[in-house]
Design goal:
The chain is built from 11 helices and 18 strands. The protein starts with 5 loop residues before the first strand and ends with a helix. The longest helix has 24 residues. It has 3 domains: 116 residues, Nucleotidyltransferase, domain 5; 101 residues, ATPase, nucleotide binding domain (Nucleotidyltransferase, domain 5), CATH 3.30.420; 73 residues, Alpha-Beta Complex (Actin, Chain A, domain 4). The chain is an alpha+beta fold and 336 residues long.
């Protein structure tokens, strides 16, 4: 009996996670590829390539092949999937069955690109599952019931907003604003307000340490600060500046408001019965960007609907993909 491995992939803009049936999540690495322009060869993928971001000489390019949740650079993505599959399956890639998550409402062209990239990487059958659906399964939401559940999956490139009932997406919207846009907003704010130029990695670090979606100045409030090393915009010399969370919070408001608009739009397009369910159950937040401090309070404050972040939001989608591929036969009907 020839037994094929079942593999689930959450191919994100910022991180890629791989799940192997009976083994669990075996891989969690940044979606970054470094390749040489001279001999068109891939030099590093994942963690090793992320170390090179913003630190490469002219002949080497370290980049993220996924932009806003969609394949931007086909050849590198395909090579990256091959690398991740080999690493996850410990070199034994025998035509595995692959299920991969895609943004809700991805176009046919985008879907075909993902399938083709997986096939080229050595997959026999490729199944696609929409991210909001996978996130909802991963968050242990009973999606097959006839009641409305709202999930907002905040990733690196997209915020996936979906209302799910009876195992299907009823209303969904993909807002192409998420983690990387927040980093860009921080870079611009520091340049404008403090005359400091920082790179992507530093911006991400600032967001994780002192990023705050909603600063609430109650009694005893002490502003978090952090030393930021960058380059002075005017003199071009290295510079260390002390940055407070209010400055960062101010920078994050614009991209966060765009995500909020998406949430409001989905709520406004939602059938009244399902909207009533959502008010009861609240909005579930998943994805890496859901780790941003106070993001649940921010959404509750502006929508009036209770919001909460699931446990381990970063692994939500991949857990859902894992459950779906473990029960492939019952999901084949659902994802057709």
């Amino acid at each position: 009996m020839f037994f094929r491995k079942k593999v689930g992939i959450d191919l994100g803009t910022a991180n890629t996670l791989v799940y192997v049936a009976k083994e669990g999540i075996v891989l969690n690495e940044p979606t970054v590829v470094a390749y040489s322009l001279e001999d068109k060869k891939i030099l590093a993928v994942g963690d090793d390539a992320k170390e090179m971001l913003g630190r490469t000489p002219g002949t080497i390019v370290a980049s993220r092949p996924m932009k806003e949740g969609v394949i931007a650079d086909y050849t590198t993505t395909s090579a990256m999937i091959t690398y991740f599959l080999k690493k996850a399956l410990k070199k034994r890639v025998l035509w595995p069955e692959v299920m991969i998550s895609i943004p809700g409402g991805a176009s046919q062209v985008e879907k075909r690109a993902v399938v083709a990239a997986c096939k080229q990487a050595g997959a026999s059958d490729v199944y696609l599952i929409e991210e909001p659906l996978a996130a909802a399964i991963g968050a242990k939401i009973p999606i097959s019931q006839p009641s409305g559940h709202m999930i907002v999956n905040l990733g690196g490139g997209t915020a996936e907003i979906g209302v799910i009932s009876l195992g299907q997406l009823v209303v969904y919207k993909t807002v192409r604003v998420a983690g990387t846009r927040l980093d860009e907003a921080i870079i611009q704010q520091l340049r404008k307000k403090h005359n400091v130029i920082v790179g992507e990695r530093t911006a991400e670090d600032i967001k994780m340490k002192i990023g705050n979606a909603l600063v609430q100045e109650k009694e005893g409030y002490v502003e978090k600060t952090m030393e930021v090393k960058g380059r002075d915009f005017q003199t071009g010399l290295p510079k260390i500046t002390l940055i407070g969370e209010k400055t960062i919070s101010e920078a994050l408001q614009k991209p966060l408001k765009l995500i909020l608009e998406g949430i409001k739009e989905v709520l406004s397009r939602c059938p009244p019965e399902l909207a009533a369910d959502i008010v009861d159950k609240g909005i579930v937040l998943s994805g890496g960007t859901a780790l941003l401090f106070n993001i649940d309070r921010f959404i509750t404050y502006y929508t009036g609907v209770p919001s909460f972040v699931v446990e381990e939001p970063l692994f939500c989608v991949i857990r859902g993909v894992g459950v779906a591929i473990d029960n492939l036969d019952s999901y084949k009907e659902a994802i057709k």
